[in-house]
Specification:
The structure holds two protein chains of two kinds. By secondary structure, chain A is mainly alpha-helical. Chain A is built from six helices and two strands. The chains are: A mainly alpha, B mainly alpha.
Chain lengths: 134, 168
């Protein structure tokens, strides 16, 4: 199976390992499909997650709070004011090329903003939206 | 009021990495830093100079990364330990920096911006500069120290948020 091969490629190597955004997306998609067969990544769902005001954290209510309303634009950390490079791979080629880094930030940012870890489907939706480069 | 004095007091800059094309004293504050330090502790704010907080305070910061000043900075254990060892090993002497106020309120974390040393060094900085919208928080060192991200805090590099240079 193609999906399994990609998962092995992406997750089978513990150290910093270069991957393409497409490969990382494919591995989240494969994981989501295992949980709910028939799952397809959705730009609309991804955009919703990206912009939704969760209100779980007073200072960090939404992903767009730090990453701005548009993934192709540079952002700023809402508390520290540190500049954040664009999330869209079309604007910043470093994005979504290190599976461990991607996992780490999904874990941290979803925990803070959403109040729990994001599911594989949510990660795939988010990436699909962000990779459009709007 | 001069940078060399601060360097004398706080730093032992013996083992400088000489590779990169940056002046040696810029790297002083990050001498011996493992690559993980900049990568992990320089992503949400600049990587702070380890010398500006005491060892006990760094231990507390590094033991509570999942509840990090209202954010989540958790790391896997191997990386966490590497960074903790570096910070504790290069911490400032408590007699010079003092404590970061972590124990003052239960649950509060120490801040290098709350040490007696930091307060003293910045007592001539006008209140208006701290409350300038570009500063946001005292830990935003780069709002005034233009080369803070490189670990350099020399006086001639200071540009206050309204564009004034610091000269006195």
């Amino acid at each position: 199976m193609k999906g399994t091969a990609i998962i092995l490629l992406v997750l089978g190597t513990p150290l910093v390992q270069a991957a393409t955004p497409g490969e990382i997306l494919a591995s989240y998609r494969a994981e989501a499909t295992r949980v709910s067969p028939g799952y397809r990544p959705s730009v609309a769902q991804g955009a919703h997650l990206y912009g939704r005001q969760f209100g779980v954290s007073e200072k960090m209510p939404a992903c767009s709070g730090c990453h701005t309303a548009r993934p192709s634009q540079p952002g700023r950390h809402v508390v520290t004011d540190k500049a954040i490079k664009p999330l869209a791979p079309t604007a910043n080629a470093e994005r979504f090329t290190d599976p461990a880094k991607v996992e780490k930030w999904f874990r941290r940012n979803c925990t803070e903003v959403v109040g729990r870890e994001c599911s594989a489907a949510e990660k795939a939706d988010f990436m699909t939206f962000v990779m459009e480069g709007r | 009021m001069n940078t060399p004095r601060m360097l004398n007091i706080l730093l032992v800059c013996s083992l400088l990495p000489l590779s990169v094309a940056v002046k040696a004293d810029d790297l002083c504050l990050f001498a011996n830093a493992p690559p993980a330090y900049q990568a992990e502790c320089g992503s949400c704010h600049i990587a702070f100079p380890p010398q500006l907080l005491g060892a006990g305070d760094w231990r507390q910061v590094m033991a509570t990364l999942d509840r990090h000043y209202g954010d989540n900075a958790s790391l896997d254990e191997a990386v966490r330990r590497t960074i903790a060892d570096f910070l504790v090993g290069h911490a400032g002497p408590p007699s010079k920096v003092g404590a970061g106020g972590g124990a003052a309120r239960p649950g509060a974390l120490p801040r290098l911006t709350a040490t007696p040393w930091f307060t003293r060094k910045h007592r001539e900085v006008p209140r208006a500069d701290w409350s300038h919208p570009k500063v946001k928080t005292p830990s935003n060192c780069g709002a005034c120290h233009t080369r803070a991200a490189q670990g350099s805090y020399r006086e001639r590099e200071i540009v206050l948020p309204d564009g004034r240079r610091w000269e006195d």
